[in-house]
Amino acid sequence: MTQQALILVDIQNDYFPQGKWPLNGVDAAADKAVQVLQAFRQAGDSVIHIRHEFTADDAPFFAPGSEGAHLHPKVLNQDDEPVVLKHFVNAFRETNLRMLLEQRSVTHLVVVGSMSHMCVDGVVRAAADMGYTVTVIHDACATRDLEFNGTTVPAAQVHAAFMSSLGFAYASVVSADEFLKTQVAA
C-alpha cells in the first residue's frame, strides 16, 4: 500500500483578493484544495502545509510575521498537521519537509496550492527528482498573469503551460474530481 501525503503549498492570505499579491481564480482553487484536504483528513492520511515567508521586511508579499503570510482560513492546519516554513521556491530547500515525509513513510505526494508556475512547480520537480511519486491537482492550484519581453501572458495560459510540463515528465496531473473518485474507489 502506498503511503501518501497531501502537500498544501502556500495557500496564504496575500494570494487572495484582499492580499498584496492576488492570484487569478484563487478562491475556486482553494475550494478544490479544501475538498482534497477533507478527503485526506477523513482517510487519516498525512497532511503537511507549506507556508512561505520572505526574509526581508520590505518583501512585496509574505513579509515576515505579516497577516498576509498566514495560512488562509479555508485551509488552517489541525494540531496533527505540521506547517513547514520556507524561504525559497523549493519547499525542500533548507526545511524539514523531507524528514517529515520520511517519518511518515510517504512515497506518494499529492500537491495543491500556489503559485502554479513557482512554488508548486518547484516542489513537484524536486519531489520527483527525489524519487517520490507525485500527483498534482490542477484545479486546486492558482497563478497570475505574467509578463515576458513586453507581452502579458494570461494566468490561464501560464497555468496550462506549467501543468502540461509537469504532466509530461514529473507528475500525474488530474482534477480534484478525478482524484477524489480514485480515493473513494481505493
Automatic annotation (TrEMBL):
<feature type="domain" description="Isochorismatase-like">
    <location>
        <begin position="5"/>
        <end position="148"/>
    </location>
</feature>
<dbReference type="GO" id="GO:0016787">
    <property type="term" value="F:hydrolase activity"/>
</dbReference>
<dbReference type="InterPro" id="IPR000868">
    <property type="entry name" value="Isochorismatase-like_dom"/>
</dbReference>
<keyword id="KW-0378">Hydrolase</keyword>
<dbReference type="InterPro" id="IPR050272">
    <property type="entry name" value="Isochorismatase-like_hydrls"/>
</dbReference>
<protein>
    <submittedName>
        <fullName>Isochorismatase family protein</fullName>
    </submittedName>
</protein>
<dbReference type="Pfam" id="PF00857">
    <property type="entry name" value="Isochorismatase"/>
</dbReference>
<dbReference type="InterPro" id="IPR036380">
    <property type="entry name" value="Isochorismatase-like_sf"/>
</dbReference>
